Amino acid sequence: MTQVLPPRSAIPAASPPTPGVTQPKAEAIVTLRGVSKTYSNGSQALINVNLTIGRGDFLFVTGPSGSGKSTLLKLLYGEERASQGDVIVDDCNLTELRGDRLSLLRRRIGIVFQDYKLIPRRTVSENIAFVLWAQGLPRKEVQRRLQPALKMVGLQHKAECFPEQLSGGEQQRVSIARAIVGTPPILLADEPTGNLDPENSWQVIQILKKLNAVGITVIVTTHDEGLIRRANHAVVQLRNGYLCRPRQL
């Protein structure tokens, strides 16, 4: 169960809130303790964030552009490092990880981006299999994992197509398949529906819900409040770098 306490209704600049975290019922797979992130230009992306996400949770992180949503996800897969506090993912403290140890952790995290990040001159199958080839898996094992990933996102019939031959919704589904083909316990999706129409957006959320139903912990950033209401999962909100429960969506 995701745990976070809301800040005070008003947040004075000189007196930041100190959210508390209660003990979750489920085993924690993500824990942030007193996490702040300040960039070199002095911009504060996150301020004293405390959050616990249980194994198997589905969590939406919402908030306006620039509120720190993408920064939060980047901290979870080690692209950014916290200026203060601890970021613990799947029992690994990212403040202590470097080099090969960080690379090994990233293999346990699937990532879906708003702009898909597909390789234009590779087919759907090749885009999905790329992460497995990079890990040195044998061809037989790559093929064994590829078909279930294609089936999960409903793209078996598009396996030999190139990205330019797909719609935006189909490209995002390829991105999801690529993220989960390595069977990671955690899936991070950064504004995965930001470039999609409502029908394709809901299709993407339904796929994420299916993945969650088989035990994958799913964390999704989005500003689409209607989609959040329809999906009916736990929600936290970032406002000016502070994490809280939204008053109403």
Provide a descriptive summary of the structure in words:
The protein has about 250 residues and is of the alpha/beta class. It has a domain at about 1-10 and about 15-105 and about 220-249: P-loop containing nucleotide triphosphate hydrolases (Rossmann fold). Helix 3 (about 125-135) packs across helix 4, helix 3 (about 125-135) packs parallel to helix 5 and helix 5 packs parallel to helix 6 (about 200-215). It has seven helices and ten strands. Helix 6 links the parallel strand 7 and strand 8.
Short account of what is shown:
The protein has 249 residues and is of the alpha/beta class. The protein has seven helices and ten strands.
CATH-defined superfamily of the domain at 1-8 and 15-107 and 222-249: P-loop containing nucleotide triphosphate hydrolases
Assembly state of the chains shown: single chain
Classification by helices and strands:
alpha/beta
CATH topology type of the domain at 1-8 and 15-107 and 222-249: Rossmann fold
Largest sheet: 6 strands, mixed
Shape from CA axes? globular
Q: Regions with pLDDT < 50 over 5+ consecutive residues?
A: 5-24
Strand content: 15-25%
Radius of gyration: 18 Å
β-strand number: 10
Q: CA-to-CA gap between the ends? A: 20 Å
Assigned CATH class of the domain at 1-8 and 15-107 and 222-249: Alpha Beta
Strand order, main sheet: write it out: 6-7-8-3-9-10
Q: Helical region count?
A: 7
The string of secondary-structure elements, in order, is EEEHEEHEHHHEHEHEE
